[in-house]
Amino acid sequence: MSARPEAGPQPGTSAPPVLEVRGLVKTYPGVTALDGVDLQVRRNEVLGLAGENGAGKSTLLKALVGLVRPDAGEIHVRGERVRLRSVEDAADHGIGMVFQEQSLVPNLTAAENIVLGSEGPGVRRGFYRWATMRRLAQEQLDKIGSTIDPLARTDSLTFAERQMVEIAKVLRIEQRTHDTPVIILDEPTSVLEPGEIETLFEQVRRLREFASVIFVSHRLDEVLDVCDRVYVLRGGRAAGEIRPADAEPGQLHRMMIGSTAPEDHYHGGAAAPPATSRQPLLTVRGLTGTAFRDVDLDVGAGEIVAVVGVHGSGREELCKALFGAVATSAGEVALDGRKLSLTSPRAACAAGVGYVPAERKTEGMVGPMSVADNMTLAKQRVRCAGPVVVPKRQADVVDSWIRRLSIRTPGRRTAIGRLSGGNQQKVVLARWLVGGDVRLLLLDHPTRGLDVGARSEVYRLMRELAGNGVATLLLADSLEEAIGMADRVVVMSDGRVVAEVPCPADGKPSPLDLVKEMV
Amino acid sequence: MSIGAAGPLIALAVVVVVFAALNPQFRTLGNVANILDAAAVLAVVTCGTTFVLLLGSIDLSAAGVMAASSLTVALLVENTRNDADYGVLGILVAVLLGAALGGLSGLLLVLLKVPSFMTTLGVSAVGLGIATLLFAGVQPGVVDAGLRGWATGRFLGFTHLTWIAAACVLVGWVVQRHTRLGRYAMAIGGAEEVLALSGVRVAPYKVAVFTMAGAFYGLGAVMVTSQLGSGVVQAGADYSFSAITAAVVGGTLLVGGRGGVLHSTVGVLLLTVLANGLVLVGVSPYVQGGVQGLIVVVAVAAAAAPLRHRNQVVK
Amino acid sequence: MSTPASTAKRSGSAAVAAGPTAAERLTSLMPVLALAVLVVALAAADPDFLRRSSLMAVVDAAAPLAVLAAGATLVVLCGGIDLSIAALASLSSVLLALWLPGLDALAWPAVVAVAAVAGALQGAAHVFLRIPSFIVTLGGMSVFSSIALVVSGAATVPVVDDTSIRWGFSRVLGTVPSAAVVAVVVVAVLALIVKVTPLDSSIKATGYSEAAARLAGIPVDLVKIGAFCVSGACAGLAAVLLVARTFSGGPTLADSLLLPAVAAIVIGGTAITGGHGGVWRTVVGALVVTLLRVGLSIVGVSAAYESILYGAIIVVAVALTLDRSKVLVVK
């Protein structure tokens, strides 16, 4: 790849793009997050970035602001190849990001946040000059036409106002480059009200006057509404480019999920019994918690029900609540006709509920403990005679499950942290199976971070369990996975169940049908 | 000021009113001066602890740091043990020793990544050791008239110690409100990771905060030495804990980034008024420590209550 | 067996693959090595040290410390800390001295029971009020001290008739100090109960990863309260041993044992971050601490250095055993 000798801005169309990414690759153990991404950002444009969960969006953004170091590939800023080692580095090159989870210090004033780390004349000999600080911040806020009081405490502002503060903060990098900065907005609309979103769009259009913007959102209509061009990421690659003028959300979504139908091999045996004909095993009526309201839900024995919904739909909280890990304020839950107590995970365990958390490393497993101890953590009685642990019994149980699930481990005494992600996940799943009494499995992103081989093994296991009559509630990693695995898909939005789509082996809905309900 | 922030102030007012009603001796002007005099050392020590708490860290080193500084100052000003007579210079050295020990806690925290409650516990032991070495079996009495005057001299009816404490609180407030050190200490307690994202290196500020806290403890030790008239290993015995209690009761939360010097000072006054009033109404002074112990647990629990959720990890 | 093989290979290259490093193994053996080095060094400095009587004196001196620290080790294994043990032992010593005349042989079990309840109360406050354990036990420390001062009138309480606790300070078979036997029995019972029951994995899971333990249905709250309860009971028992040898109880009798106890725990190699370690390690730690003290006096160094040494040891030992994967932001 030839380096461009002529750095610096040039007029007209021959000017190099402000930011160019070439063949960016980033792999994590077991997963390829970025698989050779190419991307160009031009001067004063709003570039949309769309893609499903796991398409590589967040890794790409982190690479652009120096939080992730790519394994291969190049990043060029204004024609010059750069290596970004930190957020500071990125800022020096005029790239800044408005983080999804907001990166403001809540107990400082808006002005302090805006100038944080580069106070310049705002601090003299260690003492703050508040008038200067206020002026510096006001200059930034004026750029985006915000009327926030710079000396207000950040945690007294609304979410939308804090977002403005954050944009104003990122705009400070302008002074370091004296050239068009690149501002990245990561899912900026996910927690905003409709009116606030309109205001944000005005800001974005205003930003375009003096900056290039990368706008990331899972709401396709928004992306098409505000962007000049849209890149679609799929499986760690740029799957294509769209001009919103001649596109509609359906086309964009087809690019995001690919042309292939949801894979059939998820379905393994394919002869899953028609679960709807049976009495439901799990019945949820009017369940209400902090993030969900009036949820009604049934899962039959041997049925796999996938719950889908965008960020903020409340499905993760619902899943945790069914395991007693977050509090509920109203509603009834019964398992096989008996009332299920949602007071603690322990009660749920005792009732035959199993839970595989999304955060495997911090919540799913105890890394330094052995495979055997992790596997028998929830069902201690399988290795005990009375109150005493019988090592032989533990060895037998654990070894048999290691064989049954083909868990690749040097032995049952190996610390689980040393296994690959897929094998770790199988141990975590086995934890609920060793007792032989699990009736309901709550799987929160069970294939997150696993490679293809490990995924299909987890799918096979899920099928087998369903075949044995276990009811499964699945929060899938992607729509494809949800459709492929589930007998029924429940769509949640804003904390409520908004649709239920049957999903039989011989009549799978298309992802598009679901997306319509989700947004 | 919100209701929550005003809570400690209201509690202080209530306690004052109750004791004033119960005991006529409590509401004399002389007793007000007594209370402020009794609060002086704790106020200074609490200033230091407050900054550490703002970081979200904890400081258990006051006891040891104060012991070392107390012996140091007693041996450097005119005293009964040796011929030294360095006056103000000796006081300065004692304060600097405190700062050095505080800085050591901070350095160990950022370099070895050992949690602050452990580094400060260790440094406290080191300070006690230094004090015991300096003590060497013979208690050094302070002869220096200047230092003795800190406790005995009065200005406008209040002891010099009271004025020194007031000055410390003022300095602490200015640092907290108007300097980068103070603002960054707030920010580190509020969202440390955001500072890193903004390109701020937090380690030097942490060390600086612990150093400043140590200096406050050093000064507190000098004040205690003036009160007792001699250098004592036990000079700071209960101050680590009392300072944390006062700060927390005043609204400087253990989670960091909340409260401040003025909040903590209200806590100091609350504890001191409580102690003074309880003695006046005839409660054994030995009960005081226990009362403080209960108060801190209740205060921390009350502060944590709104933030509680079921799957929270508390160590 | 073809598909998973690739996964296995991948795991080999993954960042998590390596076994314990040489440094980790060395750290794990460090306590025993330190003990051996100390014994050799002391024997070299003073040949008399290897005589049976001096060795027995060391073991005898280490016993109350070992008992005190062993209980608190369980709390540390769960990821917490108990700073109240020394004050609770002082209070227990006062109670024992006060109750011996009235309760006689029932006095010491009563004291141990009261201390266990005090520990459990702290555990309950920690768990249910969600207060960090060091704050609860710091508060407990001053409450216990305060009670001890009040009930003793801030004075030493002499013991006149110590028949019923004489077992705490005598010789077994003429040579072995009974306190050492008590310590070994206590630690052995604790270790055995933990080892042969599921408590072992419950405690470790709680210490290593409380969130994961809770989501695996482990009664984390009960485990923690239990640990504090045992810690309290051990403080009570240590007080019995102390009263037996001093023929008195005092409101500050055991206060100076806090730092040595914490030092014994961390020198033994129990990680302050929880999960890793064990009660036997604490016994080794208690012996090391005691030998250091003895060693200092043999070498002729002032006792004042003891405190400095404890301070340094605590920080260094914690730094060596810290689980760094867990402390991304150290406060």
From TrEMBL, chain A:
<feature type="domain" description="ABC transporter">
    <location>
        <begin position="277"/>
        <end position="519"/>
    </location>
</feature>
<dbReference type="InterPro" id="IPR027417">
    <property type="entry name" value="P-loop_NTPase"/>
</dbReference>
<feature type="domain" description="ABC transporter">
    <location>
        <begin position="19"/>
        <end position="260"/>
    </location>
</feature>
<dbReference type="InterPro" id="IPR017871">
    <property type="entry name" value="ABC_transporter-like_CS"/>
</dbReference>
<keyword id="KW-0813">Transport</keyword>
<keyword id="KW-0067">ATP-binding</keyword>
<protein>
    <submittedName>
        <fullName>Sugar ABC transporter ATP-binding protein</fullName>
    </submittedName>
</protein>
<dbReference type="Pfam" id="PF00005">
    <property type="entry name" value="ABC_tran"/>
</dbReference>
<dbReference type="InterPro" id="IPR003439">
    <property type="entry name" value="ABC_transporter-like_ATP-bd"/>
</dbReference>
<keyword id="KW-0547">Nucleotide-binding</keyword>
<keyword id="KW-0677">Repeat</keyword>
<dbReference type="GO" id="GO:0005524">
    <property type="term" value="F:ATP binding"/>
</dbReference>
<dbReference type="InterPro" id="IPR050107">
    <property type="entry name" value="ABC_carbohydrate_import_ATPase"/>
</dbReference>
<dbReference type="InterPro" id="IPR003593">
    <property type="entry name" value="AAA+_ATPase"/>
</dbReference>
Automatic annotation (TrEMBL), chain B:
<feature type="transmembrane region" description="Helical">
    <location>
        <begin position="155"/>
        <end position="175"/>
    </location>
</feature>
<keyword id="KW-0472">Membrane</keyword>
<feature type="transmembrane region" description="Helical">
    <location>
        <begin position="35"/>
        <end position="54"/>
    </location>
</feature>
<keyword id="KW-0812">Transmembrane</keyword>
<keyword id="KW-1133">Transmembrane helix</keyword>
<feature type="transmembrane region" description="Helical">
    <location>
        <begin position="239"/>
        <end position="257"/>
    </location>
</feature>
<protein>
    <submittedName>
        <fullName>ABC transporter permease</fullName>
    </submittedName>
</protein>
<feature type="transmembrane region" description="Helical">
    <location>
        <begin position="289"/>
        <end position="307"/>
    </location>
</feature>
<feature type="transmembrane region" description="Helical">
    <location>
        <begin position="264"/>
        <end position="283"/>
    </location>
</feature>
<dbReference type="Pfam" id="PF02653">
    <property type="entry name" value="BPD_transp_2"/>
</dbReference>
<keyword id="KW-1003">Cell membrane</keyword>
<dbReference type="InterPro" id="IPR001851">
    <property type="entry name" value="ABC_transp_permease"/>
</dbReference>
<feature type="transmembrane region" description="Helical">
    <location>
        <begin position="207"/>
        <end position="227"/>
    </location>
</feature>
<feature type="transmembrane region" description="Helical">
    <location>
        <begin position="6"/>
        <end position="23"/>
    </location>
</feature>
<feature type="transmembrane region" description="Helical">
    <location>
        <begin position="117"/>
        <end position="143"/>
    </location>
</feature>
TrEMBL record, chain C:
<feature type="transmembrane region" description="Helical">
    <location>
        <begin position="225"/>
        <end position="244"/>
    </location>
</feature>
<keyword id="KW-1133">Transmembrane helix</keyword>
<keyword id="KW-0813">Transport</keyword>
<feature type="transmembrane region" description="Helical">
    <location>
        <begin position="83"/>
        <end position="100"/>
    </location>
</feature>
<feature type="transmembrane region" description="Helical">
    <location>
        <begin position="172"/>
        <end position="194"/>
    </location>
</feature>
<feature type="transmembrane region" description="Helical">
    <location>
        <begin position="57"/>
        <end position="77"/>
    </location>
</feature>
<feature type="transmembrane region" description="Helical">
    <location>
        <begin position="303"/>
        <end position="322"/>
    </location>
</feature>
<feature type="transmembrane region" description="Helical">
    <location>
        <begin position="107"/>
        <end position="128"/>
    </location>
</feature>
<feature type="transmembrane region" description="Helical">
    <location>
        <begin position="256"/>
        <end position="273"/>
    </location>
</feature>
<keyword id="KW-0812">Transmembrane</keyword>
<keyword id="KW-0997">Cell inner membrane</keyword>
<protein>
    <submittedName>
        <fullName>ABC transporter permease</fullName>
    </submittedName>
</protein>
<keyword id="KW-0472">Membrane</keyword>
<dbReference type="Pfam" id="PF02653">
    <property type="entry name" value="BPD_transp_2"/>
</dbReference>
<keyword id="KW-1003">Cell membrane</keyword>
